[in-house]
Each structure stands twice: as C-alpha cells, then as structure tokens.
Design goal:
Belongs to the class-II aminoacyl-tRNA synthetase family. This protein has helices at residues 3-16, 45-48, 97-109, 133-143, 155-158, 234-241, 254-264, 272-293, 302-320, 328-339, 345-384, 392-402, 406-415, 422-442, 450-460, 465-475; strands at residues 20-21, 58-66, 83-92, 124-129, 150-153, 159-161, 166-177, 195-213, 216-233, 389-390, 419-420. The protein is of the alpha/beta class. Bound molecules: adenosine-5'-triphosphate and magnesium ion (MG) (3 copies).
C-alpha cells in the first residue's frame, strides 16, 4: 500500500467519524520551545492548554515533523527518520479512552476492502501505564487482546506531559510484532526492534504541577475536559505494509537510494556500512527538501545549522560511497518527485529550493577538499606515533584555518578508529573567543569580529545549543 494511500485511509477514517481534517502546519510553527514541529499535537497546544477554544471538538491531521534528536539513529535503527509524518486524531473534550482505542483498533485491523489497514490482529501488542487499569480493561474488551499482550510500563515511558504545570496523562502505545527473525519474544518491553512502535495514544486526563523530572510531578486534580492526542508514524506503517525491513525503503524514500546507488556504482544491500550511508543520504535529502520548502536556509544559527548539517552529511555520505561529483542536483529532484503528490507547493518552489541546496553543496565541497587532506595527514601522524587520538589542537586548526566543522572531524576520526580530544578543542575555542572579545573591546566603537564567533557557532552548534545563546550574548 502506497504511503499516500495509508495517509488517505487514515484521514478518511476519522473524517467519516466526524473529525475536521486540518492541514499540516509548517515545520517552523511558532513555538518558543521548539526548533521544529516534532509531533502532531504541537499546532493544537493552545487548545490542550486551555489558552484558546478549539473551533472543532474533534480533528485529524497528517503533520510534518522533524526530530533532530533522532539524527544519530538514522540508518542504524530501522525506524527513525529526521523528517517523518505523524498521523493524528484529536479530541477536545469529546470522546476519550474508549473512543481512541476503538478507533485505533478498527483502523489498523479493519480489512483493506473496508478502508482499514489490514494488520493482523494477532501481531498486535500494546503497552499501558501500570496504574491505568481502565485502559487495560478497554483493550481487553474492545480488541480482545490477551493479558500477556497488554504490557505495563512506568511513568518514564507511558506518561505524557509538557514538562510544565498543565495537562498530563497516561498513554498507551501500539506495537506490531515483525516476527521471531527480528529479535527475542517477550513483547515491546523486551525488544523494540522486533516489536515496532507504530502509534501512541495519549489520554490527557489530569492536571499536574511541580514537575521535577519526567517521572516526578504532582497530580493536583482531574481535568474538566478530558482530551485525546494520538500520533501514528506514517512511514512506520508504510514500511510494514510495503513488506520492507526499514523505513528508508518505502516508496517515498527508496528512489533516492536507488539513484545514489546508480550514480555511485555501489549496490545497496551488500555491505552494512554502505547501507547506513545510503539511508542517511535518502533521509537527509528528504528532510532538507522539506525544511527548505518551509523556508529554512542553511546557516550557523540553530535552525539553519540543522539544515546545513543534514545537507552536508548527505553530501559526505555520498563521498564515502565513492561519489565525488555534486550529488544534490541528482538526488534532490528524485525526492521532489516522491513528495510532491502530498506537498504540491514544493514543485512551484523548487527553483528557489534547488538554488539554495546546490550553493550549500558547492561551499561544502570547497571546505571538504582542503580539510580532508589536512585531516588525513594529521591522522597518519597520530597512527605513526602510535597514538589513538587526534589532539584538540589539530581539530582546532582544521576548524579555524580550514573551516572544517568539528562534527565532521569527529565522524571522520571515528571511522578511522581514532578519538578526538574534544575538551582540548573546546578550550582552544574558548580562548579564541576571549581573545576576540578583548580585541573588540580594544577597538572601541567597532563591532565584535563576527567572523570569529560565527565560526565558533559552527563548531558548537550541533553539540551544544546552549553555546549559541551564550556566545551571542557574550559577544554583544
Ligand atoms: P521511538 O520510541 O521509536 O523513538 P517515540 O516513542 O519517540 O518513538 P512518539 O513520540 O510516541 O515516538 O511519536 C508518535 C509516533 O511517531 C511513534 O509511535 C512513531 O510511530 C512515530 N515516530 C516517532 N519518531 C519517529 C521518527 N524519528 N521517525 C519516524 N517515525 C517516528
Ligand atoms: Mg523516540
Ligand atoms: Mg517509544
Ligand atoms: Mg512513543
């Protein structure tokens, strides 16, 4: 079943049940706590928090999401994309636990002929919060699930809140057993690779306060209006229903892998390290396309840095696959072809998007060309002297003189089995910063040398966002 078809079935199911279909918000939705929208409920937050009255009692959407936290997982697990789409259904004081569970069960196990997704009921496992006997009882009654396939979990995994006083509540997650060849028995509490999480149902039922940690807070009362927020990973369901082994092989993503394989001459599915690179390429090219489509441009500040990092990792992964020519002009149009059915606005905007992407690749190629040579000779020296790590000074020179970002140095060193003295690198960066500050003070009335702190941002951005804030305030 095509990804677009699963999306359509999801929306149809909930529309037929009276939900208003709400279009995806842009990835750059205005939320001071988030770089990007990372869940379907984000645009609805003011309703859940009681700050605004929702115009409808029930809604459904397919929301574009970016989770930068998952960047290191891409290609290594079978299920994490940096960009993905979250199907959701939402109830604002309308149906609650029983309604949410009934809807989910009917949609995923309903026959394909009747508009369902046709997933085998015997393969479904769920988790509930240990104290949520009500949810357990509903799963038993509505879905006929045997007790052993309804697993208990603690607050850390199965309680949802926003980290601030406000609504909170237990959640229940739905998993599909991919089969014994993918891991041990025992359900999702034992193995989340074999048992693939596809859907999270959140039951917002109480008000919490004094949030001290994810699993430490006080429940101060019941909410007057109980709400439902759910999120189903569209790509995850697609990967199951398309009979694939991971989400990089679905119809919306795999053609980029095929193109990368065609132009690099390397075969997908032969070598594990290469396969991870292929998946990183396909994932990052798509995420880059979606971010640029929503107006992000590469840069050294937080959001722009994420995009820069995604595009550069894609380009570098192509190099590791042996392809040294400009890659994005070959790959980005393939991703566009796949995504434009669901996001037609991308096509009209593509001339702008491709210009941004190709300029970024050009700039990066220049940096890489110089930096790689310097890195290689530094690495040879380390090995010859019997060492196991690159000095902070070498990493600093690469960064400072050749504009080689520290995350690339870290990755390249790791590939050679070398460590990097990151602490040394950071203290050299700090020294440079205070020098720049002193210089700026000396040159009364003139600006701080912005190139210095911009390159510092370049270095610190990906690993420590705090550095960005600190640096900018310091430099002012
Ligand atoms: P996981 O435990 O696999 O990292 P999660 O518990 O972090 O997933 P939720 O926050 O519950 O995910 O998000 C709701 C749904 O969105 C998940 O059940 C999953 O289907 C999907 N999802 C979450 N993260 C990703 C991702 N990085 N790529 C693709 N789908 C995702
Ligand atoms: Mg996660
Ligand atoms: Mg999870
Ligand atoms: Mg989850």
């Amino acid at each position: 079943m095509h990804t677009a078809e699963i999306r359509r079935r999801f929306l149809d199911h909930f529309e037929q049940a009276g939900h208003t279909v709400v279009p995806s918000a842009p990835l750059l939705f205005d939320d001071p706590n988030l770089l990007f929208v990372n869940a379907g409920m984000v645009p609805f937050k003011p309703y859940f928090l009681g700050q605004e009255t929702p115009p409808w009692q029930t809604a459904t959407s397919v929301q574009k999401c970016v989770r930068t936290l998952d960047i290191e997982e891409v290609g290594k697990t079978t299920r994490h994309g940096t960009f993905f789409q979250m199907n959701g259904n939402f109830s604002f004081g309308d149906y609650f636990k029983e309604g949410a569970i009934t809807h989910a069960w009917r949609l995923i196990t309903g026959s394909v002929a009747d508009g369902g997704l046709g997933i085998d009921a015997d393969k479904i496992w769920v988790t509930v919060l240990h104290s949520d006997q009500e949810a357990r009882e509903i799963w038993r009654r509505v879905a006929g699930l045997p007790d052993e396939r309804i697993q208990d979990r603690g607050l850390l995994d199965n309680y949802w809140h926003m980290g601030v006083p406000g609504p909170g509540g237990p959640c229940s997650e739905i998993y599909v057993d991919r089969g014994p060849e993918f891991g041990p028995d025992g359900g999702p509490v034992v193995d989340e690779d074999r048992f693939l999480e596809i859907w999270n149902l959140v039951f917002m039922q109480e008000e919490i306060a004094n949030v001290r940690a994810k699993d430490q807070f006080d429940v101060i009362g019941e909410l007057p209006n109980k709400n439902i927020d759910t999120g189903m990973g569209l790509e995850r369901v697609a990967y199951l229903l398309q009979g694939k082994g991971n989400l990089y092989e679905i119809d919306e993503v795999f053609p980029v892998i095929e193109k990368a394989s065609e132009v690099s001459g390397r075969t997908y599915g032969k070598d594990h390290a290469d396969d991870v690179r292929f998946r990183v390429v396909a994932d990052h090219v798509r995420s880059g396309l979606m971010l640029m489509g929503d107006g992000v441009t590469p840069g050294n500040e937080a959001r722009g840095y994420v995009l820069r990092r995604l595009l550069r990792r894609a380009v570098r992964s192509m190099r590791l696959l042996g392809f040294e020519d400009p890659a994005l002009p070959l790959l980005l149009p393939v991703s566009l072809e796949r995504m434009k059915a669901s996001y037609p606005e991308l096509e009209a905007d593509f001339p702008r998007i491709e210009q941004i992407a190709y300029a970024e690749e050009d700039a990066f190629r220049q940096t890489l060309g110089k930096g790689t040579q310097i890195f290689e000779s530094a690495a040879v020296k380390v090995k010859e002297s019997g060492g196991s790590g690159l000095s902070g000074e070498a990493a600093f020179t690469l960064h400072d003189t050749y504009g080689f970002p520290i995350d690339i140095t870290l990755e390249m060193a790791a590939e050679k089995g070398l460590s990097v003295d990151e602490e040394g690198f950071r203290s050299l960066m700090a020294e440079q910063r205070s020098r720049a500050k002193a210089d700026a003070k000396a040159k009364k009335g003139s600006h701080a040398d912005t190139t210095v702190y911009r390159s510092a941002l370049d270095a610190n951005g990906p690993t420590d966002w705090q550095a960005y804030t600190t640096l900018t305030t310091e430099s002012r």
